[in-house]
Amino acid sequence: MAPDGSISDKHGWEDADEPEAQSLLGMDRFEAREAIVEWFRTENLLEDVRQYVHEVGHSYRSHVPIEPYLSDQWYIAVKKPIEHLGEKFGQGLVEGTDVPVNSLAGLALKPLLDGRLRFVPDRYARTYQAWLENLRDWPISRQLWWGHRIPVWSKAGSEAQLRDELSEFADAVHSVTVDCEEGAVAYASVGPGNEAIEQQFKAEDWTQDDDVLDTWFSSALWPFSTLGWPDQTPELKTFYPGNVLCTAREIITLWVSRMVMMGQYCAGDIPFGDVYIHAMIQDGQGRKMSKSLGNGIDPLVAIDSHGVDAMRFTLASMATDTQDIRMPVAAMTLPDGRTVNTSPKFDIGRNFCNKLWNASRFALMNLEGMDPAGFDPGKMDVTDRWILSRLAETISEVTESLEKFKYSEPLADLYRFFWNDLCDWYLEWSKARMQNVQAKPIVQSVLAFALDQILRLLHPFVPFITEGIFQKLNEVAPERDLEPLAEARSSKSLAIAEWPRVIDSLREPDAEKQIEIVQELVRTVRDIRNNRNIPPKTPLVVSARARQEIADILNSSAELIGRSAGVREFQAGANIEKPANAAVAVADAVEVYVHDAVDPQAERLRFEKQKQQIEKAKSGIEAKLANEDFVTKAKPQVVAQAKDKLAQLTEQLKTVDRHLSELDNGR
Fold first, then answer.
1. Beta carbons within 8 Å of 166's beta carbon, 6+ residues apart
2. pTM of the entire structure?
3. Concatenated DSSP letters for 3-16?
4. What are the φ and ψ backbone dihedral angles of 54, each rounded to 5 degrees?
């Protein structure tokens, strides 16, 4: 067959002079196949015709069948030792393999095995290694009309003539002369920057190869060719090698390996040390997003519908170590009448950005007139120490996660700290203290420092909204240090601001424990209020029974409890008795009584339901602990946690039974 798919006597058909062969010459291959069958039929050589179904690959661009066709191609010998590379990279085999160190495959494989190249998640390193260990020679020529044209020139003639023509270019070209029946053919490759030689080749009837380089060959040069290589430019010295490559798993073999290979060969070093493999985003049905299916989401549409920060936040929150993640796709109509795809998932990011903006506005209004000199660490109360301790822990966890290329985990930590700790609790507690002349400077300083640090932590995820808030924060509170506890170095822009430092000295486990106990009691009181439809503005009388250590903590925090739960009277103790008609709930090791809030019949139904839930959970753990395999094979801490949980449920069950008994006795 000729390259155009027609039957030809110029491409290796030895029997083309036969009469039946002559009748096929010039036919398209599809016509020739029908003609051959008809020839069999007329010659009584056709025994049977059967229908069968099989799969034939089709081009996704032209939609025609893909048929193999043998042709001459340019190859790179990837496992052949390259002599001059031995001086820099060594010789012999890469340890544990049959790959020569000074081969192209060896240049890509050795950095992985000696720890200079790392994949995240690390399971993809096995894909990379297996590919290189079993790699065959690399076909680099493509019969396309676009791309880098292969820099190889050829000319036929006598060997002596060709050698004479090449002699004047000995230092600028690589050449080889091949004997053939008609004489000899010389091939010469011309390196970059030798346009004059190329012009002379053209003048002397040399022909440049028509093929172009494989896409991945050209792409492999990208990390250094964009920086001015082969010249030693300032850009190349500054930005090569880089640090991180972020890419998808399907091009680990096609692109990542080739970039490392060519980076070592051409620039003398690997182009990056870390390769982060991100998940593949699919639609809600688990299909790959594509134009043909019409199930893709244009990022520009997501930006128009939800905002760029909302899109970034949502995508980062979905970036786990899993191989694929699903994003439901929904159609929406734009103001100009176009119907486009977006996703309700982006609502998550938009809601967070709205919360960040509104909470920051409230904080900035309360920071007006702030005097950093008014901060006195000795005057901080437990809420100040608690929020700074939570902040210190968040900084540590987020920093550690990002260094490990984790994105959803640190974003979840930031979400919890900002939305729950800072907004739901600290800002609410600070409102009353802002009205106190002595407490206000302390609250302002702590709030300014916390907002400064959270903006820095959130900046990689939502850069535009955080930069806008940071600029306003610089105007309202330019100095945000907590001398002598912590430093927040000033910066004109958040984009160049120093990353928050891990400050272990701000950790206060006792303050966190105290606030945790208070929060649990407040949530319990709020639940009782909601379940019994008690109006939010109705002040409550609350008492609690707990061991004396916890009771002391609760009594010392009575003011916080009052402000957070609408409680006008509160008392805790180890011997507190349940008042008549009091609503009862159990918060960990604390029994909470909301006075005069009970309908006895409804209370009985509630306790009976709670008893069923506790018994169900208790029997599940008992069954687990009765399983010998679990007790012997599970981690000791897991078994210990199960035993602790069983003890806790047993105590809760006793408490519920006691309350049911009290209801029976009319209490």
1. 173, 175, 177, 186, 188
2. 0.77
3. TTSB--SSSS-TTT
4. -150, 165
Cis-peptide, bond into residue 241, ω within 30° of zero: yes
Question: Quick one: pLDDT at residue 595?
Answer: 92
* pLDDT one-digit tens code per residue, 161-203: 888 888 877 777 888 888 776 689 999 988 777 888 888 889 8
The CA-CA-CA angle for residues 319, 325, 326, to 5°, reads 130
User: Is-contact 324 282, C-beta < 8 A?
Assistant: yes
| Backbone region of residue 375 per phi and psi (left: phi > 0; alpha: psi in -120 to 50; beta: other values) | beta
Position of tokens 């040069």?
221
| pLDDT tens by residue, 606-654 | 888 989 999 999 999 999 899 988 888 888 888 899 999 999 899 889 8
Compute the distance between CA of residue 85 and CA of residue 265 in angstroms, rounded to an integer: 8
Residue 236's Cα: distance from chain center in Å? 28
| pLDDT score recorded for residue 666 | 60
**Pair of tokens at residue 239:** 């930005």
- How many other CB atoms sit within 10 Å of the CB of residue 437? 6
SS3 state of residue 20: helix
121 cis-preceded (ω within 30 degrees of 0): yes
**What letter would DSSP give residue 44?**
T
Residue 524 has pLDDT above 90, yes or no: yes
Give the pLDDT of residue 634: 86
**Mean of pLDDT values over 263-269:** 94
Rg, the chain, Cα only: 37
Coil, strand or helix: which one is 119? strand
- 160 — pLDDT class (breaks 50, 70, 90): confident
State how beta strands 183-190 and 280-283 pair. unpaired
Collapsed DSSP state (helix, strand, coil) of residue 120: strand
C-alpha dist (Å) from residue 60 to 79, 216, 255, 291, 292 = 33, 19, 21, 11, 10
Separation between Cα atoms, residue 284 and residue 286, nearest integer Å: 6
Q: What is the mean pLDDT of residues 253-265?
A: 96
Average pLDDT of 506-513? 94
Count Cβ atoms within 10 A of the Cβ of residue 600 and give its class: 0-12 exposed, 13-18 middle, 19 or more buried: exposed
Three-state secondary structure call for residue 177 = strand
Distance, CA of 620 to CA of 373 (rounded, Å): 57
Element (H, E) at 157: strand 152-157
First-residue to last-residue Cα distance in the chain: 100
Residue 626 amino acid letter = A
Per-residue model confidence (pLDDT) at position 110 = 96
What number of other Cβ atoms are within 10 A of residue 566's Cβ? Answer: 19
